[in-house]
Amino acid sequence: MPKYIAKRLGLAVITIWAVATITFFLMNMVPGGPFLSEKAISPQATAALEAKYGLDKPLLQQYLTYMWDSLHGDFGDSLKQRGRTVMSIILMKFPVSARVGGISVLTSLLIGIPLGCMAAFKRGKFLDSLISVVATCGIAVPSFVICTLLLYFLGVNLKLLPTMGLASWKNYIMPVMALSFYPTAYIMRLMRSSMLDVLGQDYMRTAKAKGVSGFRMLFKHALRNAVLPVITYVGPMLAYTVTGSFVVEKIFTIPGLGGEFISAINGRDYTLIMGTTIFLATLIIVMNVAVDIVYKIVDPRIKLK
Amino acid sequence: MKKRALALLLAATMAVGVTACGGGNSGNNAGTDNAAADSAADNAAEDSADNAAADNTDDGAGQAEAPAGAAGEKILSVQIGPDPETIDPALNSAVDGGNMLLHSFECLLIVNEDGQLAPGQAESWETSEDGLTWTFHLRDGLKWSDGSDLNANDFVYSWKRVCDPMVAAPYAETVLGMVAGYKEAVEGNLDALQVVATDDKTLTVTLNAPCPYFGSLAAFATLSPVQQGTVEANGDAWATAAETYITNGPFYISDWVPGSYILMSKNPNYWNASAIKLDGIKFNLIEDANASYSAYQTGEVLMIKDVPTEEIPSLEGNPEFYVEPIIGTYYLSLNNNKEAFKDPKVRKALSLAIDREYVAGTLMQGTYSAASNFMGPGWIDTDGSQFIDNANGGNPYIDTTAHDANVEEAKRLMEEAGYPGGEGFPTVTYSTNDAGYHKVVAEYLQQAWAELGVEVNVDIVEWASFTPMRRNGDYDASRNGWVGDYSDPSNMLDLLYSSNGNNDGKFKNAEYDAAMEVSRTTLDAAERSEALHKAEDILMEEAGCIPVAYYNDFWLQSGKITGSWHSPYGYWYFMYADITE
Predict the structure, then answer these.
(1) Å from A152 to nearest chain B CA?
(2) Above 0.90 for ipTM, yes or no?
(3) Mean pLDDT, to the nearest integer, of B53-81?
(4) What residues in A contact B178, CB-CB < 8 Å?
């Protein structure tokens, strides 16, 4: 196991390096630059800005400098948000997204797994159909539609919940609902189909024959075998969700990291593009390693090599 | 059994772990808030009350169901845009950043409710007879928001900082380009800039050439004073946190959550603090128009700038819906370097083929006004009257109400230019970014120019690529626009000067350039006015660009707000506002 983790970490470093390198050259190939606005900035000012951030150097040199600095933990200054470092932006905004996203993932697991199991157990019955309908809707309806509907009914019409910010626990309800709708639906479906597989196994029939109760059979004997696909899905999903959703954060005015991914690209904020990309890549890799470890724990038959 | 529990626990901790580390940060935020309040309460006895006020709002901020904050405080909650890119006066070049600066800083002069220059930090000012020396006399007892004294040297430092190549202020040339020694200063020799504090209360500025509108520049946010000690101690970061953002205007920032809100509190050290009725203004940094509209409907905010365009038809006639002109024009650039657009007749024909009333009134839902001139309402002539009233002998250059006659004229011009019925005219690519009404206008142009037999392809270009493309002249025809920084007509007419960086159409006309040069050097108000009008005459006759519509600001504002106003520069003035129930 330690050998396995060491190997995975080595691979992770190479993957992150590759992601960083590809991103660096791709973003520089796209036309435009960070210091453009509708009103022309004087050539002196543009030159001074480029010199200040080293953008006047040859691209290869910029790349080497960036890599060297980032190896030392310096991800540079944001080119658009003058006075803020990339690190400070991520440290300021990630916790906000992580809080909303973390709650959403937890919610989807707590609702998705039991409902998925129930649907499998009551296969073909009314409950199963109902859950299937809800799950299909959850997967088909995009989050901005859900956000808008929530905002309109719960916020504007009924005035039950505040529409913006994160001042109290009430503010979390709508964003969490919007963020967890899709993963909940997805987990329900995954859970249902893998549970159906497991329920068809011989040992389940044996359990049933021995008179084990339905609830006990489902949650004690079957769940552990059936939950593996869900774990596979939850790892990367967690990485994406905790780094924030552009749409949900924009609609509910949540000061999270999601918007930075998009605005960094739109504004050609090179250092911030690099910083957020490397951050997300790292997080996804970490989650994948974590998923493998959880696998091993859930199913000791799996060998990690 | 034990292992399964462990597995589930682990899966759960993966989620909770991240959640918990999020929770930890809110503690940090609270720490910062206190620091902000502390630094604001450095001196002065009256500050202690203010400190308590800031603390209250920190607790109550965001629960803004009621317009007023906690403990009977009068906090006005508004939305005038998303997170500003920067609120460093020297670095800002955007209107939403400008709105923040307007409430937190004060320049030597200000623009008052009637659009006239009025005393700000300077109580009086005068110009020498040759127009080259401007002297500003500061008020007594000026202070920064932290309670320390502010004097003329603070302006000297701040103005030199704007020229500093390491600061790279985008507006440096616009606001200080005419000051003697500017060229040396932008090369790095800051002390060459001829801005001198003759004593603590007097600031003397020497210009290279007379600049009749220098007063407007002295009221321009880029030239706000910034506190040397704070800026030097914190570098660019001084303008990113409430505690280091020391200001001299009616308000200071007491709490700032980037991406969420900027809370400004009344600055007790402001010279005119007794006239300020609000305890604070909360600028909600809402990015999405539908979200801000929802917040307005629930009463969480009392004024929103971003109104969803699809709601506009239902808002017409609503007394809370305002449409007011700002100085700016939505226009089209034709690339004069392309063979097809070299002939002024062709350019004019394309201009006349556009039904501006239809574009502004129907396509743009009345949020724009049809443009008959390049310089719309709000630009001020040298004698203080409206520039548009004196243009073309008081007549519109293009009669926007006579569309059919215009189209006939356009067809005739195309024929004269050698393209009868558009025969032989190359296909035109119209480039625009996709925002607001740009796409609808593009589709309309396809239809309108088809009447002249001109075929148009529309090319939608992403914003960050669009600007450099247009500037480099890599296009046939494109959308363009300008909103004035100050009301002197040269601000917009300069755009078509042959060597101007914003002359995207690459319009080159010797007479036009000559007229603009006269306007820059003459001291005689009548001669200057004549030169500026001549320039616009040439521009319209030659169709150097195609004005389509004048910009308006449209917004929703509750009747509960009294004493606020909106200026033709696109700014909202809430500093003297009040909330009535």
Answers:
(1) 7
(2) no
(3) 58
(4) none
